[in-house]
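# nightly structure sweep
# worker-07 picked up a monomer target from the shared queue
# config: single-sequence mode, recycle default, output format = structure tokens
# input follows
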Amino acid sequence: MDGEYSADVDAFYASFWFRATRKRGDGSRIAVCAGNPAGTLRASNYLEMFATPSGVIVRTAETYPNYTYCARVRNCGYSAQFHYVQITPLLRLDTWHRVEMTFQAKPADYADEWKYVINKVFTHRGGAYFQTARYDQGWPYEYINRLKFQPRHPNRNPSSKGFYFDDVYYKAFSSSDTNFTAVDEYGTSFERDPLY
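# output follows
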């Protein structure tokens, strides 16, 4: 488990801009989760953008009731309850919004941490929802080094038009490095200017 964490780095940072494609909320939902190196699993957090008729909500899924309880009972996996934590009030649908998310691996089960900052105003500290489920199932620890974007509204729903994303950037680094030097990084943008 976490006590056996042996990666070269123990931290991950990602940032991106997003905007709903429609000025009226259409129920579109998308999850942005940290993925494993193979790109096959949502391996740690769960962050979601939800376009309601009144505006966009940014929220996370967190293990219920909390990570301390789950470390003790070891029964908070996929089939157990979770709860959404709303990070923002309703945000404008027709405006670009910035998300920053930082991961810190901790050398104890159920202790990995995520920090989210939305528009440099709204913040939340949470845990690693998907990693909690892996612990409860006795599955191996999954390292993270990429993002996975997963629509959460019904597939092929013509009324859900989704979101635009731009300036997607992420990097893996060591938390002990005061300069946060990237060991590996990736960025993509519609503009010419480099992201890193």
